[in-house]
Amino acid sequence: MTTETIPSGSRAGGPAARRARRARPDLRMLPGLHNRLPRCEPMTPDEVARIDAASMDILEDVGVVFRDEIALGDWRNAGADVRGERVHLDRGLVRNLIATIPSDFTYTARNPANSLRLGGRDSIFVPMTGAPFLRDLDDRRRSPTLDDLAMFHKLAQMSPALHSSAHHIVEPCDLPVSHRHLHITYSSMKHSDKTFMGMTTSPKNAEDVMEMCAILFGAEFMESHPVTTGNCNGNSPLVWDETMLGAMRAFCRRNQPVLCSPFVLGGANTPASVAPTVAQLNAEALSALAYTQVIRRGCPAIYGHYLSTVSMKSGAPMAGTPEISLMNFMIGQMARHYDVPWRTSNTLGGAKTFDAQAGYESATTLSAVIHAGANYIWHSAGWNEAGMHCSVAKFIVDAEQCAMAYRMAEGIRWDDFDAGLEAVRDIGPGGHYLGHPHTQDNFQRAFFLPELFDNNSIEQWQAEGAVEITGRALRQARKLLDVYIEPALDEAKDEELRDYIVRREAEIPAVEALNQEF
Amino acid sequence: MTTETIPSGSRAGGPAARRARRARPDLRMLPGLHNRLPRCEPMTPDEVARIDAASMDILEDVGVVFRDEIALGDWRNAGADVRGERVHLDRGLVRNLIATIPSDFTYTARNPANSLRLGGRDSIFVPMTGAPFLRDLDDRRRSPTLDDLAMFHKLAQMSPALHSSAHHIVEPCDLPVSHRHLHITYSSMKHSDKTFMGMTTSPKNAEDVMEMCAILFGAEFMESHPVTTGNCNGNSPLVWDETMLGAMRAFCRRNQPVLCSPFVLGGANTPASVAPTVAQLNAEALSALAYTQVIRRGCPAIYGHYLSTVSMKSGAPMAGTPEISLMNFMIGQMARHYDVPWRTSNTLGGAKTFDAQAGYESATTLSAVIHAGANYIWHSAGWNEAGMHCSVAKFIVDAEQCAMAYRMAEGIRWDDFDAGLEAVRDIGPGGHYLGHPHTQDNFQRAFFLPELFDNNSIEQWQAEGAVEITGRALRQARKLLDVYIEPALDEAKDEELRDYIVRREAEIPAVEALNQEF
């Protein structure tokens, strides 16, 4: 059922490593989630067709701005109606292009046991990325360093339900902006042997990521194996910019999938209504998905979005609101209509601390994306303050929440049904089951025991220091970091990666400007 | 769409009342929820049949203990196979009896505008009850008084998504146990004109509730109108006791519905497995539902349960775990299979404070019961510490969460779809929508703006005192209580109710013992 992820190389080492292994709980990665729950599909087939038609009308009549000369040229060659920067896409052309996007693919990790199917009912949890601040092991909000990023990559590696180390979970602010992507990529490769993401903060940065992937996996191997994913945000409404399109080309040319993610602040850059917002978002996603196939026919690509509604009081993005859930259900239906894997955002929160607000927001979002049947479930750990900080405590708790959602989405076990009914006959009215062999055989796998929830009596809880969940999660994070074992990495490849970074740092001027992605 | 709930009587009053009305936000009760979302149904029809068959086997072969001479006599007369206290129920008899339970009914409130349909897709949110402690307006955990109970009844009255004032939200510990039910019932009748629940802590207490309902509604009226609901807990596995059965008879004889609620601690009093637990719970619920029809053919009744899984470490009940969600989905399918309205528990939490644990647990449960399609959604506000306390702060936040879930469950609006698409054409690529007339016309109803979530920047949040959600919710509770307007109650009825209490207090010896219900 689960696969061993500690590579054999790490079994070596001195007495300290052996002690660490003994003290270690079972941190093996869960296999990719095969979501067996029926999906929440609030649209009838006619309503799906209505969104599709509206999106196609937008693509044909309103058009999409591609602020990028190369993309405009590509579109002209592909037969689109290009007027200035605005590309009008005929629905026939769009349907023809997106038809070659694979409905699923294997996302390859450097440890083959951690490779994952993506698409259909197969889903993965990916931690948050992009936070300019963190709340650290002392719950202090501060600027993150490369060491902080490494810490999060280690925690991702040790969280069974997280299937990826992502990339810049937090921004390593102690490095020049123009060099960060190199160290971020190396850190996610080095500290984890799960899948990881590639930076798309500029076309050149994306090329560097591709080169580093080629060192790790081989350029030839990448031609037929997705080994990373990049996120490209659209500027809603209906604009794709040069940075994102250039990064997209860097990935697609190497056959690496991008998340085509319109950046939606419902009511600010979309109409103030659920169904028209989905129609616009769908048009935007389709335009980028189509472009991936202009770049390279058959390249895997992922229907994406970043989605929030904004407060009319402040313009601030909100999380965990009912319309976000509804739109997730609808977007899932649209992505399945086009038979393309899709990405959403998980466990979002706007709270400034890890208080109950963060809990409500995160759990509401998690539940919605599971019922929506999302495939690439990003921002699955740590996100708070509308993405402004990644919280260590929340990261730990979110990761466990993903494990709980995973269990729910696995569905109902029937293999021990008759044995369970035998226990009912054995025990009879008024008895109790704790001593029954069926209970003792089944309890561990029958009922999830959350480590981060405290369910003891208040007296017990007080006797243990009256620690709220933030404190318990931070204690857990320290424990995990104490027993972290770095996954073995081929020495020659490691050296080549480090050499590449040194060379590129010499070539790239150190500058300080930052593109954000969500 | 919404109904006015401030009765005309309250429009009178002095300048203070007029000021209160002016300062008052819109607190009108939302109509009963018509849940339009597709339900999460993880069982195939064959699997539903499998649970049904297993439950019927349990009822026939294992039997159910009715620890009550009257019930045993009733069952003998009804043709059941009674062996000592154990009643073996033939599946034909069970099916015949439950066939006369109405699939839906109207739950009448003293303000007719607040009456509610229950059953099918029609659902209601009912606050928690039964807490022996509260966390008060200062977040202090202490023993509750009758004044505290009145405060919660007022907050229930002013929470738009709460459809009931329930009954003993907190235990009025300043009163003798044997007199409490009288004051609890009066408080829920007096401080709210929504539906309310009736105490079932003893058969005699239940009779008192029926008498007080007869004063308020008229005994004749009750014969054809459910005006309250009582909860009867089973002792799992497979036992119903004298207290609950006597209370059930008091309600059913007056045609008032009871929630037939097995009390399930998964793994302790059921097998350690999801599907067999549901089979046992289903048998238990069916046995009580059938008995309601032995008492009075055609009386409305509700398929109930209290459901948690227990920690194998401590035996403590857990909340928000994946198996509880799965079992809710399954129980919903079973209740619909029998075409009976069903009750579940909402926003449960095991946290000792209103920390992020409470948020995760509550939102996970809320989401599950909405997707499960539950009708009578009890414990919808305030529950924490496994029901040991009701938190004022959590009550306020949970009530808003119910309003958000309500919005989600209403489903997608299509009436402004074309207008929204027109806005997309008007704005075009790169524009923004905030100034567009469609946005200004639609924003308020398009996107829910949670009052209790803070989505401001950290700078703004700090400038406002860096208050976490607990503090904000308590501030909100105080604000609401400042503008509370007591709904008018007919003076003669009010006096008659108070006279009844005085008389019964003189008759009933003041004693100190307590039956809990969940």
UniProtKB/TrEMBL annotation, chains A, B:
Ranges annotated as biased composition (Low complexity): 7-17
Region annotation (Disordered) ranges: 1-23
A family per Pfam: MTTB
EC number: 2.1.1.-
The keyword Transferase is assigned to this record: yes
Keyword Lipid metabolism (UniProt): no
Keyword set, alphabetical order: Methyltransferase, Transferase
GO biological process, one term: methanogenesis
Domain of life: Bacteria
Family to which the UniProt record says this protein belongs: Belongs to the trimethylamine methyltransferase family.
Protein name per the record: Methyltransferase
Annotated organism of origin: Aliiruegeria haliotis
High-level lineage: Bacteria, Pseudomonadati, Pseudomonadota, Alphaproteobacteria, Rhodobacterales
